[in-house]
Amino acid sequence: MGTAATHHASSARVVRNDWSTVAAPDLDGWRPTLTVSVIVPAYQCQPTLDLTLASLAHQSYPADLLEVIVVDDGSEPPLRLPEIRPERTKIIRIGGSGGWGRANALHTGVTHSSGKVLHWLDADMVAFPEHVAAQVRWHHVLPYAVTLGYKRFVDPERHGPWPPPTAVAERWGQGHAADLFGGSPGEPHTYVERYIAQTDQLRAADHLAFRIHVGATAALRRELYEAAGGLDTQLRLGEDTELGYRLAQAGAVFVPEPRARSWHLGRTHVMQAQDQVSRYNRPFLADRIPYPRHWRTAGGPSWSVPFVEVVVTVGDEPLERVRATVDSVLRGTERDVRVNLVGPWDRLDGARVPVLTDPLLEPRLIAATYRGEPQVRFVTESPESAFPAPYLLELPVSCGLAPDALRRLVEHADRHQVGVVHVHAGQRAMGVVLWRTAALGRARWVRSERESLLDAVNSVYGRRDADANEIGIHTEHWGAPARTRRRHPTLSTVEVEGVRSLARAAVVVARLSVRRAVVWWRRTSRR
After folding, report:
1. Number of alpha carbons in the 13 Å side-chain half-sphere of residue 399
2. Cα–Cα distances in Å, from 502 out to 492, 495, 497, 510, 511?
3. Which CA distances in Å does 429 have to 382, 405, 452?
4. In the chain, what percentage of residues exceed pLDDT 70?
5. What CA–CA distance (Å, rounded) separates 85 from 152?
6. For an engineered disulfide with 18, which of 203, 433, 434, 474 has Cβ 3.0 to 4.6 Å away?
7. Domain 308-475 sits in CATH 3.30.1490.190
8. Residue 299 has what pLDDT?
9. pLDDT score of 387 more than 50
């Protein structure tokens, strides 16, 4: 693996998602220093937006460190800023060819904001006074954290009509935010809170923890957002899950913050039309996220983001050896792969060369072999990471994979939740290494100047060795093309049409019968 610049060499080292080793500042008496941009995407929602801004106007976080960016996603009539709002609030209107949708609105808000911490908050959320501070305190001590706020759902049919913004301001000023809806506790976000509880507040969560990233209220450092590549503005739904996946690959740790409470005004899209939303999301998310694995049982086998990026360095190796290695990957039972062939492809120009003694003959033959293969790409340098794919496999040309080998290797890494797996043949290292992208992402946040990437990965995710025979990885699996005797085609049926064709068919069948008799006689005579 190559090296990459680190983000914060002095950052606390969280192992996997166990954030319990990090001490966030106490909300009482704490003095924040980071600027925060609360991004509020909004569309056709003036009444609820007014309540959201009224709650943000009474946050405990210092007003001089807080800005609010409302992004109007093309509402008609245009949204306006109400009287009760934070001091530093502005509205950005998207129109014309500026795109549309929540992801696009949030990203637009990011480009118009200046805070070091980005805080998503939907325009149907009423945030309790400590909501922002409770989340942002984590970002003062852990720059690769993604904090998740809590919410309770209220419905006008069950909990009465929405209160006016003045009621929010009054209740917040009195410290009675929980009484806004007559003392009703509201409805919890059941599946989210169940998952958090089942995983010890996410501290025991595995590599699928990103699925809990729900964007109605969440916060992260701007640099983490940029490291993950930002929001996919082409998505209309499911953008929070997709961003959560890439944040995980960039090294994020997900931290639930129960003190960041809020009211959610009404039900979510998923609650209102779960089956339709799931049907819509699946094609878009399956192409971008390799999890859950069953999403990719339909379609494929090539996806925009593969499950495993395999790196094979060609060097001076002959076509036959490279082909044997690459084909062992492409013909395996785990088809969700992409092979990166590292070689001097940029030197393969159209200049006149002695065809059979060309110094670049082997790379030229290899390039011709896989030029039309969509699961193979030609690169001149080995990639430092598989991002956004979840795994990178370094596979020497001297090694080949049994059909189930790649699947077994990934299962080995997931069973032990490690960041890197080295394959050994007895006591000998084979150079076959499987890297977890999330572990590489995390290591680059905490790695010190003189620390190797392997040591940094081991410190935050751990490493594991695997036996080549158990996994199904072998060496020297190629040879010269075997000579095969030419075999005549065997006919089982002969299609006929008309008298002449029938006559020709009779001749063919007669010849076939004689040929089979001769073959039978030769075999029996040798016994």
Report:
1. 27
2. 16, 9, 7, 12, 14
3. 20, 17, 18
4. 88
5. 22
6. 203
7. no
8. 81
9. yes
Q: Which 3 state secondary structure label does DSSP give 28?
A: coil
Classify residue 481 by its DSSP letter. Answer: P
DSSP 179: G
Rounded CA gap, 389 and 338, in Å? 10
Task: Give 9-31 pLDDT, tens digit per residue.
Answer: 557 999 999 999 999 999 998 99
- Using CA atoms, how far apart are residues 71 and 242, in angstroms rounded to an integer? 21
* 3-state percent helix, strand, coil for the chain, nearest multiple of 5: 35, 20, 45
Nearest CA to 35 among 76, 70, 77, 68? 68
Instruction: Take residue 92 and report the two structure tokens written for it.
Output: 């950005």
- Asked whether the beta carbons of 374 and 301 are under 8 A apart, the reply is no
Strand order in the sheet with 253-256: 89-93, 66-72, 36-42, 117-121, 217-221, 145-148, 253-256
Task: Provide the mean pLDDT of the chain.
Answer: 90
Could you tell me the CA-to-CA distances from 316 to 307, 322, 330, 344, 364 in Å, in that order? 28, 10, 22, 10, 12
Q: How far is CA 463 from CA 17, 178, 439, 457, in A?
A: 16, 46, 10, 8
Q: How far apart are CA 26 and CA 483, in angstroms?
A: 76
Within 8 A by CB and 6+ apart from 129, the residues are 55, 58, 59, 60, 172, 175, 177
Amino acid sitting at position 217: T
CATH top-level class of 33-272: alpha beta
Task: Give 353-420 as a DSSP string.
Answer: --GGG-TTHHHHHHHHHHTT-TTEEEESS--S--TTSSEEEE--TTEEE-TTHHHHHHHHHHHHT-SE
Decide if 33-272 and 308-475 have a common fold.
Answer: yes
- Strands 262-265 and 125-127 turn out to be antiparallel
User: Domain locations in the chain?
Assistant: 33-272, 308-475, 489-527
User: pLDDT of 47-104, one tens digit each?
Assistant: 999 999 999 999 999 999 999 999 999 999 999 999 999 999 999 999 878 899 999 9
The neighbour count for residue 113, using CB atoms within 10 Å, is 23
pLDDT at 526 over 60: no
Regarding predicted confidence, which is higher, 494 or 125? 125
